[in-house]
Design a protein that fits this description.
The protein is α+β, with helices and mostly antiparallel strands. The protein has five helices and twelve strands. Helix 3 runs antiparallel to helix 5 (142-149). The radius of gyration is 17 Å and the shape is elongated. The mean pLDDT is 86.
């Protein structure tokens, strides 16, 4: 595998992703995969070099589409820039949600938000598992948090590796509750 920048390696690791290259692939396609416990992982994007020396980036930008990626950028100067473009667009929260549900772990999280943000978050169609407890308190199931971890940061609503829920640029600490 190609050597990549340490900050990109750390970003991939914190998001539960890794890079892989298909052994028989002469074109040099590099896949960005989520660790789903199966050999090779679940691809959420890939990058392809062009004959001109630039790179194309493709990402699973629309959740729910199985193994379908859209071109999200082109003409990038290197593989790392292309992988970062995939990370900026890839949506794989539904995959993490399913893995968390399958694990059976009974974990939930609580957070204190401004009242209007708590109501907005609980009213989202996806993910399931967010409850407005009144005032600014919310409870999120483990699968709901997993789903939010798989959303691109640019959407303004995601969970980072430090268990912070980000809403419109503001972080809110998630408190883990186990039974």
């Amino acid at each position: 595998m190609t050597v990549i920048d340490g900050s990109l390696t750390a970003l991939l690791t914190t998001r539960g992703l890794f890079l892989t290259r298909e052994r028989s692939d002469a074109a040099g396609i590099v896949y960005v995969c989520v660790d789903d416990g199966l050999p090779g992982g679940y691809p959420v994007g890939y990058v392809v070099p062009s004959r001109a020396g630039t790179w194309f980036a493709y990402a699973r930008a629309r959740a729910g589409r199985v193994f379908a990626c859209d071109q999200v950028d082109a003409g990038l100067s290197g593989m790392e820039a292309a992988v970062r473009a995939v990370l900026d667009h890839a949506r794989y929260g539904d995959v993490l949600y399913a893995l968390a549900r399958e694990s059976g772990a009974e974990v939930s999280y609580t957070a204190e938000l401004p009242r209007e943000r708590a109501a907005w978050l609980a009213a989202l169609a996806a993910p399931k598992g967010i409850t407005h407890l009144g005032g600014g308190s919310v409870r999120l199931t483990g699968p709901a948090v997993a789903y939010l971890r798989g959303l691109p940061q640019r959407l303004g609503c995601h969970v980072d590796a430090e268990d912070r829920l980000w809403l419109a640029g503001d972080p809110y600490r998630l408190i883990r509750v186990t039974r």
